[in-house]
Amino acid sequence: MVSQPDNPLRGIALSSCACAVFAIADTTSKYLSTSMPIVEIQWIRYVLFFVMAAIMAARAPGHPLRARNPKLQIVRGLCVTGSSVLFVYGIREMTMAQATTISFLSPLLITVLSIPLLHEIVGRRRWAAVLAGMIGMLIVVRPGTAGFQPAALYGVASSSCWALALIITRGIAASDAPQTTIFWSSLVGAVMLTILLPFDAAWPTAWQLSLCLMLGVMSSAGQWLVVLAHRLAPASLLAPISYTQLPWVTIGGYLVFSNLPDRWTLVGASIIIASGLYTAHRERIRARAARQAR
Questions:
Q1: Is residue 283 a contact partner of residue 236, using CB atoms and an 8 Å limit?
Q2: How many CA atoms within 13 Å lie on the side-chain side of 263?
Q3: Weakest-pLDDT range from 31-45, 135-149, 195-209
């Protein structure tokens, strides 16, 4: 695979566009989840995702459909699909801003999971960032109070699945091309949801079907924008850009559902974002030190 020249500004622009696209897709998912079975929504999305991923892989040189780590690819696909389904279950009951804020836990959970799975050493500063992020999450979720919503647990489970998927991505990045990973993720998701579809399906209206098709196209486009962005700029530079999704979903939540985040969500989001940015900063320092040591 031919390497792309570094173009940080273009990478940041593509990553920002991906955040806006994902925000529209999440808003559409929440809207559909009030009138359609969630498994069916995700099934239509993943069928389109699979078709687009197969076309992309077929045009790539070499053997992009052949994974060198099929077992890890399958586990990653299950994690990605589980994260998507659980996120929609959560967002159906919560505001857009609440659900998105909880999803920002993923970078912090990656730090925790990297210890047993990647045998990384986590210093006191990164542990402090993780602890601060967890405090921010508790402020958003507010367990034991009148403001607690059980649906927030879906969000935490979704973030955990996504963090595990990203940990696996680190392990297979050196052996499998991005097109291979995207293809296998779409394939595993389509198969898994096809198995579950008979248990949670209803005949959609023309309007619902059109929105599901738009959701599938936008989700696939967002995934591809992320891949393109990471080919042009380092992940440590792009990590903070993901937080720009919060204002987009806040706008979407207000325009479509007439709701805005409360002050506790904003306080918790600020803490989680700050801890996530610090974690990304420490990752950048660690990566720079590793390069200099070679």
A1: yes
A2: 0
A3: 135-149
